[in-house]
């Protein structure tokens, strides 16, 4: 510690060096205006990570957040002695620095601390003691005269020049002032420790208590709370029925999740959850005309670094990640390398920043030698630094392999150590790679590589080599095998087991253990040489020396132990002792007894008005002891209180519960009892209710009849009651018989059922019974017997609307057509393609009672055609035809050639492709390319004609052309290249073009493609098209029955490069008529017309 401060007095005892500290700070008497430095040294020899140091004043004030001009913190590290040195320097000590200080050091699970005192004396003469100096802020430092309330009162005050003041009794002024004026008075007279001021003011006010009729206990003068925490303010009023109002800065507070107001007798409480800076205000509690006041101060802790930076020592190319943790999420941190700030906005920077909650990371993917240096990180309340040392990557052999000489069955281990722990390698024996096995193990832990050979054999002898991956380096050693023979005649004494049959043994070699108890069986063993002990359970050895079931072998004693016996431990155990002189064996049976399992399948079989019949199954396991009986309990559903039904053991598995309340749901559970104790309770039974059965089902009718089945329908009973309805039972019997047979084994919840496997031609009676927890209802009967015979129904195909027109799909797509039909008995469905039966290898067909499915997994062109579905029932039939067209991309056009070249233009012509892809060609795409670059550019798309003119060609270049054809599936796979090229000739500089007479392009409108008569189905949108040629661009007029079609939203008119289209959306019969298109320009007009017929849907004939 520097000597700018005086030595401590004689009454200060020196602090002993204990724990982590090598040197601790001492208490000092400092002179005002001088500097003082405190030094702490920490030994990190036994620490696994860098220690964390905190300087504190008083109990909680962290000086790390106050570091600056007045308080300076410094940290150094000596690599030779591994000692960290921490310094705190107080610049120009002021009286406010006096007080108790504490320094804390922590490293993972180790922690140490020490305290010291600072006393400040005046530089020249003693000043008169001022009571206000006791309330100056402790950490004000050199700015003591400039009061800063930003951390306490959230209001920054500007610096004012000191003015001569008259002597004023501040405490008398505070006692007579309103609490909202405390801040103003404290600021004026230099009081910064508001907490101490309020405590003293409170004590002074106690001397003259003020009587209040409304309040028995008023609010405290002030409250302090950390940001984000909860605060509770309470008062005690004289009238327990009085209503209070809470105000913040004069505004009434409304109850919410943040502000919770409670009243408990005479106590009124206001709770503020998750306090924020906005809650730093003056609060009032109002009862009638009486009020009490308080102030709440919200403290915002500075952002401190809770986990400091670590130093890194890496080689070139390794990844480095500096990491810190701060006290709160969302903190702003600044990273520096030496004196240069690292920016996140620099995209070319090799530094990457990561933020995850409180964690902040600086990442260097590949370290270089230029990264050597010190890295710093700053927050508004702390700082940290870490050193990065980068070295060249070299591999050194720290420990080589030594030659080994081992005996038979011993272990041989080769070990070497290299400088890089990430380096991997391979082991070789006589040039052959050694692979791991049950006897040979290869390990790599850190920088150490091991090859371990267990149970060495003569064949293991040889030269062993370790070769690191990626380095021209090898390490070799030799393994020598040594074989030794020793002949001796040992003393032999046959082994003997001395088994103690007393204690838990109930019969010979049988041991009974209560589940959960501990079994320890000590077996004395004799024999020479010492015999080998083997415990077996059902031919499986028990070898564990640790765990719940274990064996402990001592001299002349073997202990078999089971901790907390379980049912699975029951069985036959064998102890066998062997030595060269013989063998001895003993058999034991360990029986585990326990409380029985709980009973199963507890259920109610019937209920009465106030009774219920309960049955259950015995437990699967009786615990190894005979069952004595059962105990029963019941409770109301939703309640947690169980009522015992019997106190004496009940032996039967059926029980009638009595004295129950009608209409209340109950649950039952049963306990099993044996000689060991009572089992766990069974699962609760399904809730049941003592109530009468429902009335009979209503309106039972026959829905359908076949040769072997009958479909029934009915409605729910008119009276169900509180017991509800669980389901229905359907029964049948032949006419003239009285024995009813159930048609369903499980209850049916729906109100319909199909009775199957009935005899054909017989007359059957049917009835339905409703069942609830109370039992069966009266049956509902049919009025007359039903004859089991199929009802004839004509076949009828219900063809979906979208399949009545042409069905188009692309090659490779899946086709799945579902055609519903009806008819009884089940019709025979047959599919034909173009009049011939379908090929089942190409087309799949599946038929059911109500539909037929035609599916094709991947459509091909030859699947196109007309498919006919034929339904037959005896001599009746029905049919429907579906036209399927499979389309594909077209082939390329034919004979593309340049017909003429003039100026910067070239004319092309071609013929349509031979293969149109099974659908109409919708256009062509023309591309051009210079012969030199051979880069292709699209000239026209969707060109409908088989010729075009390419313009804007560059003079002096030679051009190639290619054309794609296009249909519904897209462009053709391959284009057709032009047979000849277009050369745009380039003449000399004196070239004079011949006179050119511009061609008169004006022409009167003339339709090149007329309108075509059409007939469409009602409701299906359609379109009519034509093409016109004219210049200037003509005006197009569409008419229906010589009447101009206006802006009717049902009609959409389009003009695409002279192709005129009129779209009619969902036409009706009123849209039939003659449609005409007229083109008009200044040179003339032309008109075409067609007839459009709207057909109504055919009406199906009912049989």
Automatic annotation (TrEMBL):
Q: Which GO terms describe its molecular function?
A: actin binding
The residues covered by the Fibronectin type-III domain are: 598-694, 696-791, 892-988
Superkingdom classification of source:
Eukaryota
Q: What CDD domains is this protein classified in?
A: FN3 (cd00063), Ig (cd00096), Ig_C5_MyBP-C (cd05894), Ig_Titin_like (cd05748)
Q: Which BP terms in the Gene Ontology apply to this protein?
A: cell adhesion; muscle tissue development
Statement: the UniProt record of this protein carries the keyword Phosphoprotein: yes
Residue span(s) of domain Ig-like? 14-119, 209-304, 393-465, 495-589, 795-883, 1005-1093
An example of a Gene Ontology cellular component annotation for this protein is: myosin filament
Q: What does this protein do?
A: Thick filament-associated protein located in the crossbridge region of vertebrate striated muscle a bands. In vitro it binds MHC, F-actin and native thin filaments, and modifies the activity of actin-activated myosin ATPase. It may modulate muscle contraction or may play a more structural role.
PANTHER family for this protein: MYOSIN-BINDING PROTEIN C, FAST-TYPE (PTHR13817:SF43), TITIN (PTHR13817)
Q: What is this protein called?
A: Myosin-binding protein C, fast-type
Q: Which organism is it from?
A: Danio rerio (Zebrafish)
């Amino acid at each position: 510690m520097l000597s700018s401060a005086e030595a401590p007095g004689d009454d200060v005892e020196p602090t002993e060096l204990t724990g982590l500290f090598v040197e601790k700070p001492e208490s000092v008497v400092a002179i005002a205006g001088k500097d003082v430095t405190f030094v702490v040294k920490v030994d990190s020899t036994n620490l696994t990570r860098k220690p964390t140091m905190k300087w504190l004043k008083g109990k909680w004030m962290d000086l790390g957040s106050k570091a600056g001009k007045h308080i300076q913190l410094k940290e150094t590290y000596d690599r030779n002695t591994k000692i960290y040195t921490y310094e705190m320097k107080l610049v120009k000590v002021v009286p406010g620095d006096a007080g108790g200080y504490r320094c804390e050091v922590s490293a993972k699970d180790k922690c140490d601390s020490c305290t010291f005192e600072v006393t400040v004396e005046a530089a020249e003469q003693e000043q008169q003691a001022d009571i206000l100096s006791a309330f100056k802020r402790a950490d004000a430092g050199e700015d003591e005269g400039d009061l800063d309330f930003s951390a306490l009162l959230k209001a920054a005050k500007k610096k004012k020049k000191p003015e001569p003041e008259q002597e004023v009794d501040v405490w008398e002024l505070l006692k007579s002032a309103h609490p909202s004026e405390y801040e103003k008075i404290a600021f004026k007279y230099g009081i910064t420790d508001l907490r101490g001021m309020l405590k003293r003011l409170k004590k002074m006010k106690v001397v003259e208590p003020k009587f209040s009729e409304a309040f028995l206990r008023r609010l405290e003068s002030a409250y302090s709370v950390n940001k984000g925490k909860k605060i509770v303010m309470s008062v005690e009023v004289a009238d327990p029925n009085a209503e209070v109002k809470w105000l913040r800065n004069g505004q009434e507070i409304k109850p919410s999740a943040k502000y919770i107001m409670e009243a408990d007798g005479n106590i009124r409480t206001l709770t503020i959850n998750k306090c924020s800076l906005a809650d730093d205000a003056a609060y009032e509690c109002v009862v009638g005309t009486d009020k009490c006041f308080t102030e709440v101060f919200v403290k915002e802790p500075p952002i401190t670094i809770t986990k400091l930076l670590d130093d890194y020592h890496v080689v070139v190319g390794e990844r480095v990640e500096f990491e810190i943790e701060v006290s709160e999420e969302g903190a702003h941190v600044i990273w520096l390398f030496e004196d240069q700030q690292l920016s996140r906005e620099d995209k070319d920077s090799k530094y990457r920043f990561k933020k995850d909650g409180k964690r902040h990371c600086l990442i260097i993917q590949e370290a270089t030698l230029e990264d050597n240096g010190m890295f710093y990180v700053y927050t508004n309340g702390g700082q940290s630094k870490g050193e990065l040392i980068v070295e060249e990557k070299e591999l050194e052999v720290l420990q080589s392999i030594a030659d080994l000489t081992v005996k038979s069955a011993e272990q041989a281990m080769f070990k070497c150590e290299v400088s890089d722990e990430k380096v991997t390698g391979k082991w070789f024996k006589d040039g052959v790679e050694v692979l791991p096995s049950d006897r040979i193990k290869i390990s790599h832990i850190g920088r150490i590589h091991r090859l371990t050979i267990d149970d060495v054999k003569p064949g293991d002898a040889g030269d062993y080599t370790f070769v690191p991956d990626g380095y021209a380096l090898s390490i070799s050693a030799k393994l020598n095998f040594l074989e030794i023979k020793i002949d001796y005649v040992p003393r032999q004494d046959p082994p003997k087991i001395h088994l103690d049959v007393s204690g838990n043994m109930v019969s010979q070699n049988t041991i009974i253990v209560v589940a959960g108890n501990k079994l320890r069986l000590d077996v004395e063993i004799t024999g020479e040489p010492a015999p080998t002990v083997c415990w077996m359970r059902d031919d499986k050895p028990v070898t564990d020396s640790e765990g719940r079931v274990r064996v402990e072998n001592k001299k002349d004693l073997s202990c078999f132990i089971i901790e907390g016996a379980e049912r699975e431990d029951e069985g036959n155990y064998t102890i066998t002792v062997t030595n060269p002189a013989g063998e001895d064996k003993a058999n034991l049976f360990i029986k585990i007894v326990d409380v029985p399992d709980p009973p199963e399948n507890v259920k109610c079989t019937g209920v009465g008005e106030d009774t219920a019949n309960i049955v259950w199954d015995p437990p699967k396991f009786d615990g190894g002891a005979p069952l004595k009986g059962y105990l029963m309990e019941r409770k109301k559903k939703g309640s947690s209180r169980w009522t015992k039904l019997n106190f004496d053991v009940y032996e039967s598995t059926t029980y009638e519960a009595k004295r129950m309340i009608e209409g209340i749901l109950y649950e039952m559970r049963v306990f099993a009892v044996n000689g060991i104790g009572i089992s766990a309770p069974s699962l609760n039974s399904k809730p049941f209710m003592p109530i009468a059965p429902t009335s009979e089902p209503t309106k039972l009718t026959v829905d359908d009849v076949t040769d072997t089945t009958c479909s029934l329908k009915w409605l729910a009973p008119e009276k169900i009651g509180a017991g509800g309805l669980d389901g229905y039972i359907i029964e049948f019997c032949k006419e003239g018989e009285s024995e009813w047979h159930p048609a369903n084994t499980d209850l049916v919840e729906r109100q319909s059922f199909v009775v199957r496997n009935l005899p054909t031609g017989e007359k059957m009676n049917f009835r339905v019974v409703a069942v609830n927890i109370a039992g069966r209802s009266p049956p509902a009967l049919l009025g007359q017997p039903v004859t089991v015979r199929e009802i004839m129904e004509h076949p009828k195909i219900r063809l979906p609307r979208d399949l009545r027109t042409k069905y188009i799909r692309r090659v490779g797509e899946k086709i799945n057509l579902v055609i519903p039909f009806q008819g009884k008995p089940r019709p025979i469905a047959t599919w034909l393609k173009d009049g011939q039966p379908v090929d089942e290898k190409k087309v799949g067909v599946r038929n059911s009672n109500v539909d037929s499915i035609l599916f094709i997994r991947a459509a091909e062109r030859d699947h196109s055609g007309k498919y006919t579905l034929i339904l037959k029932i005896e001599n009746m039939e029905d049919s429907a035809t579906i036209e399927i067209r499979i389309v594909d991309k077209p082939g390329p056009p034919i004979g593309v050639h340049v017909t003429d070249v003039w100026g910067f233009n070239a004319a092309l012509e071609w013929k349509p492709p031979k293969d149109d892809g099974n659908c109409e060609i919708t256009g062509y795409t023309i591309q051009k390319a210079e012969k030199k670059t051979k880069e292709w550019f699209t000239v026209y798309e969707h060109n409908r004609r088989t010729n075009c003119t390419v313009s804007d060609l560059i003079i002096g270049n030679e051009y190639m052309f290619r054309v794609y054809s296009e249909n519904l599936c897209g462009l053709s796979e391959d284009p057709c290249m032009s047979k000849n090229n277009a050369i745009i000739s380039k003449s000399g500089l004196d070239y004079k073009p011949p006179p050119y007479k511009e061609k008169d392009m004006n022409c009167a409108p003339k339709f090149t493609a007329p309108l075509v008569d059409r007939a469409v189905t009602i409701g299906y949108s359609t379109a009519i098209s034509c093409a016109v040629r004219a210049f200037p661009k003509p005006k197009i007029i569409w008419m229906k029955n010589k009447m101009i079609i206006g802006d009717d939203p049902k009609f959409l008119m389009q003009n695409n490069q002279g192709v005129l289209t009129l779209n009619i959306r969902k036409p009706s019969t009123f849209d039939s008529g003659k449609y005409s298109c007229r083109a008009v320009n200044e040179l003339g007009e032309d008109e075409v017309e067609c007839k459009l017929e709207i057909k109504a849907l055919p009406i199906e004939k009912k049989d």
